[in-house]
Amino acid sequence: MAEFFSSPEFESAYTYTGSDLGATWTKESTCFRLWAPTAKSVKINLYRSGNPGAEDLIKSVTMKADVNGTWVAAVKGDLNGVYYTYTVSRNRRRVETCDPYARTTGVNGLRAMVIDLASTNPEGWEADRDPHAGIQLTDAVIGELHVRDLSIDPSANIKNAGKYLGVIETGTKTDSGIPTGIDHFKSLGITHLHILPMYDYGSVDESHLEIPQFNWGYDPINFNVPEGSYSSDPFHGEVRVKEVKQMVKGLHDNGISVVMDVVYNHVYEAKDFCFNQIVPDYFSRVDESGVYSNGSFCGNDTASERSMVHKYIVDSVCYWADEYHIDGFRFDLVGLIDTDTINSIIREVHKKHPNVMFYGEGWTMPTIPTKPDIHLTTQPNAAEVPEFAFFSDTIRDALRGSTMDTSEHGFVAGAEVDKHLLHSCFMGMPFWAPNPTQSVNYVSCHDNNTLFDRILLSVPEAPHDVRVRMNNLAAAFVITAQGIPFFQAGEEMLRTKPDGKGGVVENSYASPDSVNAIKWDALNDPVVMNNCNYYRGLLAFRKAHPSLRLTSREAVMDTVTPIHLDNPHAVAFGIRGTGDVPMIAVFNAGIHPQTVNLPAGKWGVCVNANKAGTEVLETLEDSVCVEAISSMVLVKIG
Fold it and tell me: How far is CA 132 from the centre of its chain?
């Protein structure tokens, strides 16, 4: 069937363009529409509860075949809170499964629920807005966070530990009185909180949350349903919907925009995924012998090039933007998704929400599309998706070393890195990025080691204070570079993930809370607190200077000029300051001080090895001596 599903004949006959797939509720009746072109018959099963083990069937309703391979039925009465599944008969087989367009579900996502979405809106929802609407992409500062990581450690003193509502608890402090949770991130200066997957995923059993369980959540079950384990009650489908909306509004009220991490490139188990249960393997890239393409290395790849998969992904992203007021989307392994789908998503979302931002992992993966001449959303194809930004592994690996070899030194640990590469990264335009708005600059995220652990692995012999300097040298480079700065929550706290055996965990996707939780008591250490203040100062400095946040190649080329230094371990830049003050930025990873001649006039130091911010720390003329393993940024003051 693989070739037939992707043929023009199939798509002409069975592409449905309507906006009513799933269950459309009114108080008087609920209309159901399911796309199942290969089905012989379809029934809706209505249940009293969302527990898949409960024998509480209310009734089954036969659906009628309708246009473009869809099946329809209308059930009278107020079904709000009623659970349902579809029974699809095809090819001598009968399957009962969830609705791909389910808006919410019962426990563990096996029964969909009819829902009056308006009843889940928190007070003031109609007036809720993105607090950073209207800013340009390079004005954003993105912090990445896992819902559970934020609040599960007792030192956070957060009541709703590990939950959506824990994300927005304010006034929380450590026992010593230091702010924790959202108050910490708000004071740090981020504009956007990137939340790791919060759609319904499969690796955590929502029915036994009394048992500590952890996963990053890159294993989708229901794309349009919030994850139940972060809710206060995963057994009642309306609760998770209400609490995600409360979380989003609470973040907005605190001046923080919300980015949702989405994983459309694969599913948890391809054979069990509801879309593939209804139309066998249509959602996935499968060859004629039944072998799944596995560029994701998760067992399957999504066939986004097929018309109804394309539609499903576009509909899904639009739904999250519309219903949950999501301000941005980070796409996992977007290099497996075709450029037409990504451009359609951006175009459709921007019709109603022009400020929503889009970025993702544009790695080139060995996938096998089901149609010829498909262009995938990879870094080399960045020009084909001009409103989509990509994680810059270029700047990451240049500064901290390759992710493939944790013993390899990066620039901050003393490696001699190609200066042209460093220059292009600082200018927000590594070789694959046409414009700085397409480069998301980072040195740490949930994947691989934390920045501080990565430095430890590459230079284990270095004293602690030297590793701190390396950490902050990387941070200063990323935060003052052109492009969009991004960092993992806790990087500013020198976050580490010890394995309890003297080592550190690299990919902690299923590690316990003891590894993953943010340890807020670390802030009692003056070194850690000073480090947080350093990040806070760097972000304030970036915000104060528009010439660090340019949006076009032409503007960057006209404004930022590399300064020649003979030292292979140091780079420097002059920033002309169009509409801003001129600046000099120096990054010295060497073990000796670096002298840099200054243009005529007086120059104020705002960033040095120990402090960062908008205040002038000292005034210099003629030249500056930059300490070993440190950065310095100066502004012209006379």
Answer: 17
- 521-544 pLDDT per residue, tens: 999 999 999 999 999 999 999 999
Residues 429 and 599: their CA atoms lie apart, in Å, by: 26
CA distance 291 to 2: 10
- The terminus-to-terminus CA distance of the chain in angstroms comes to 73
CA distance 146 to 125: 24
Kindly report the backbone phi and psi dihedral angles of residue 370, in degrees, each rounded to the nearest multiple of 5, phi listed first.
-90, 0
Q: Are 81 and 110 in contact (CB under 8 A)?
A: no
**Chain Cα centroid distance, residue 187:** 21
pTM of the entire structure? 0.97
The residue written with tokens 């493939």 in the block is 404
Which amino acid appears at position 184 of this protein? H
Mean pLDDT of the chain: 97
Q: How far is CA 509 from the centre of its chain?
A: 15
Q: What are the φ/ψ torsions at residue 264 (nearest 5 degrees)?
A: -85, -5
Report the SS3 class of residue 507.
Answer: coil
Nearest-10 Cα torsion for 50, 51, 55, 60: 30
- SS3 string, 403-441, reads CCCCCCCCHHHCCCCCHHHHHHHHCCCCCCCCCHHHEEE
How many Å separate Cα 95 from the centre of its chain?
34
Which of the 8 DSSP states describes residue 395?
A: H
Q: Report how far residue 463's alpha carbon sits from residue 249's, in angstroms, rounded to the nearest whole number.
A: 44
Which tens digit of pLDDT belongs to each residue from 487-526?
999 999 999 999 999 999 999 999 999 999 999 999 999 9
The counts of H helices and E strands in the chain are: 16, 27
Residue 34 confidence (pLDDT) = 98
CA 220, CA 623: separation in Å to the nearest integer? 56
Alpha helices in 177-302 (DSSP H): 181-188, 237-253, 274-278
Query: What SS3 class is residue 114?
Result: coil
pLDDT in tens, 301-359: 999 999 999 999 999 999 999 999 999 999 999 999 999 999 999 999 999 999 999 99
d(CA 150, CA 131): 22
> What are the phi and psi torsion angles at 60 (to 5°)?
-115, 145
Q: Is the pLDDT of residue 386 over 90?
A: yes
User: Could you count the other beta carbons within 10 Å of the beta carbon of residue 58?
Assistant: 14
Contact predicate 531/468, CB 8 Å: yes
- pLDDT tens digits, one per residue of 49-60: 999 989 999 999
Local confidence band at 92 (pLDDT 50, 70, 90 cut-offs): confident
Residues with catalytic roles: 332, 361
